[in-house]
Design brief:
6 helices; single chain; elongated; 133 residues; mainly alpha
């Protein structure tokens, strides 16, 4: 399965480091909105290894954007992070009401996308367009 995903990413990006970094980092982020952060990263590490095996140049920025994606995009949903689940439980326990999945998403999507976009832009500036380390 990881080989198939890696091949699809190679075809989509042409193996270009900047595009590859964007696809892997943002995909890790969106997966992190639905799974625990560590699981999302753990799912993508073998894909990055397959990309390297297929001859892709994977700069260090791939790993940085995966980290940012898992961290920032994990806050998009109430189930994307253990802390979010705890916060929802504490809100209900303290009598502040139930925070629904959609209720969290309405705010979480804005904050997560803005944070991830800023992280991507700053990383691009630091790594000469995501193509370097």
């Amino acid at each position: 399965m990881t080989g198939t995903i890696a091949t699809s990413i190679m075809h989509l990006t042409g193996g270009r480091p900047a595009e590859l970094t964007l696809v892997v980092g943002w995909a890790t982020g969106f997966l992190s909105a639905l799974l625990a952060n560590m699981l999302a990263v753990a799912a993508f590490l073998p894909i990055v290894a397959q990309l390297k095996a297929q001859g892709a140049a994977c700069p260090t920025s791939v790993y940085w954007l995966m980290l940012f994606g898992a961290t920032f995009m994990g806050n998009m949903t109430s189930i994307g992070s253990t802390c979010n689940i705890i916060a929802c439980g504490m809100s209900e326990k303290r009598g502040h009401g139930v925070i629904s999945f959609i209720g969290w998403l309405k705010i979480g999507i804005i904050v997560s996308l803005a944070s991830m976009l800023l992280a991507t832009l700053l990383l691009a500036l630091q790594t000469r367009g995501l193509s370097a380390g």
